[in-house]
């Protein structure tokens, strides 16, 4: 998976140093918290405390999961060749978590410049695979 993180972000230095992270996938109900987390730096505050989020231990990496998120992806850095030029880390997902109690998740995804997409609509297409 490709993950671009600005070299001005606190997370950039952490990922570069530890070579591991958790990518959290929140639901639309958390939109205000998502924006709040994105507009603050973990270098200055405890985001879990400030935004009432619950850290949960990951199984394979040191970074915590966020219990309120629909999905959490534990990742290790697989390739750093594009970090210097593009701030692009290639990470390998080594463990994935979802909340099985959530049946129709409406996940939120940042598109940049304050724009978000809400996923969740399902469509069914006929497969030609045997």
Overview of this protein structure:
With 130 residues, the protein is of the alpha+beta class. It has a single domain, classed as Electron Transport, Fmn-binding Protein, Chain A (Pnp Oxidase, Chain A), CATH 2.30.110. Helix content is 19%, strand content 32%. It contains four helices and eight strands; from the N terminus they run βαβααβββαβββ. A four-stranded antiparallel beta sheet has the order 1-6-5-2. A two-stranded antiparallel ribbon has the order 3-4. β3 and β4 form a beta hairpin. It is globular and about 45 Å long. The model has no long low-confidence stretch (mean pLDDT 94).
Which key terms come to mind for this protein?
32% strand, 130 residues, 4 helices, alpha+beta, Pnp Oxidase, Chain A
How many E-type strands? Answer: 8
CATH domain class: Mainly Beta
Question: Unreliable stretches, pLDDT < 50, 5 or more residues?
Answer: none
Output the structural class. alpha+beta
Helices and strands, in order, run as EHEHHEEEHEEE
Helix content: 10-25%
Net shape? globular
Q: Please give the domain count.
A: 1
Order of strands side by side in the largest beta sheet? 1-6-5-2
Helix count, per DSSP?
4
pLDDT averaged over residues: 94
CATH homology-level superfamily: Electron Transport, Fmn-binding Protein, Chain A
The whole-angstrom Rg is 16 Å
Distance between the termini: 28 Å
- CATH topology tier name: Pnp Oxidase, Chain A
CATH architecture: Roll
**Percent range for β-strand residues:** 25-35%
Q: What composes the largest sheet?
A: 4 strands, antiparallel
